[in-house]
Design brief:
By secondary structure, this protein is mainly β. Helices cover 9% and strands 52% of the residues. It has one helix spanning 2-23; strands at 36-43, 75-85, 88-101, 132-149, 156-174, 184-204, 207-226, 234-254. An eight-stranded antiparallel beta barrel has the order 1-2-3-4-5-6-7-8. The longest helix has 22 residues, at 2-23. It starts with a helix and ends with a strand.
Length: 255
């Protein structure tokens, strides 16, 4: 799948460039006030993810989850934009996930934990309960970009702007068995701000390709665990500063 995706990313711009050359490269396809864009993006995975801790441990420790962009995997996303001026664009994007895992009760066995292996021969092992769990995560971002035309290269524009975003994740689980100390919850959220720069090439009246990078970005992460009901949160946080981070490729449509 990764190879297919990379081939598509490599072939699409060449096909568009060929079509543009046949159509007439000197025509102005750049956006105007009131135009909307919708683009598929391949780049930095800004989603947060966390797992609740078992509720039966004697001691707990916490560490803030990594917000280093190079630790993330590539992800396909989307970005919607609106040119509220010929050279100014507002961008919005995000995504949401929800997963539910139904729980199942424990099935007791006949083995004696204090007996020897020989005495337990032929006995039935017990099955632990399956946790009733659910996971929820989302991320949102908004940015404002200022575009600049390049006189020597028709339909090629570079831009710079500011972007802010938030990502949140929650995971909770509860076991239906006597050892359980109630519901265990894990939460993590990221707050991110960045300066961004990129180029867009409008190869057709309704299509463009682009690339983007963040010269500077800052991310704050808070990770919190509550392994048992009635306990206070176990917190850990971090501050991340990145330079020339989160390279992103775009293929989009203008309408």
């Amino acid at each position: 799948m990764k190879i297919t995706r990379l081939l598509l990313l490599a072939v699409m711009p060449m096909v568009c460039l060929t079509a543009n050359a046949q159509h007439g490269g000197k025509k102005d396809f750049t956006p105007k006030k009131g135009d909307f864009t919708l683009a598929a993006t391949v780049g930095y995975n800004s989603y947060a993810s966390v797992s609740a801790l078992p509720g039966t441990m004697a001691n707990y420790e916490a560490a803030a989850l990594s917000t280093n962009w190079s630790d993330k995997k590539l992800m396909v996303g989307f970005e919607a934009g609106w040119f509220f001026n010929d050279l100014w664009k507002l961008n919005l994007g995000g995504g949401l996930n929800f997963t539910n895992n139904p729980g199942y009760s424990a099935v007791p066995g006949t083995m004696d934990e204090n007996a020897s292996a020989e005495d337990n021969m032929g006995e039935v092992p017990g099955y632990r309960a399956v946790a009733d769990a659910q996971s929820f995560s989302y991320n949102v971002f908004a940015s404002v970009d200022r575009y600049f035309k390049m006189k020597n290269v028709p339909n090629l524009m570079w831009y710079t702007g500011l972007r802010v975003g938030m990502a949140y994740a929650q995971n909770q689980m509860k076991y239906d068995e006597y050892e359980s100390m109630g519901k265990s919850v894990g939460e993590s959220w990221n707050l991110r701000g960045s300066v961004t720069m990129g180029i867009d090439y409008f190869v057709l009246p309704a299509m463009y390709v682009g690339a983007q990078i963040d010269p500077f970005s800052y991310t704050y992460n808070m990770t919190a665990y509550k392994p048992q009901e009635g306990l206070s949160n176990l917190d850990a946080d971090s501050h991340n500063f990145s330079f020339l981070s989160a390279p992103t490729i775009k293929i989009g449509f203008k309408f």
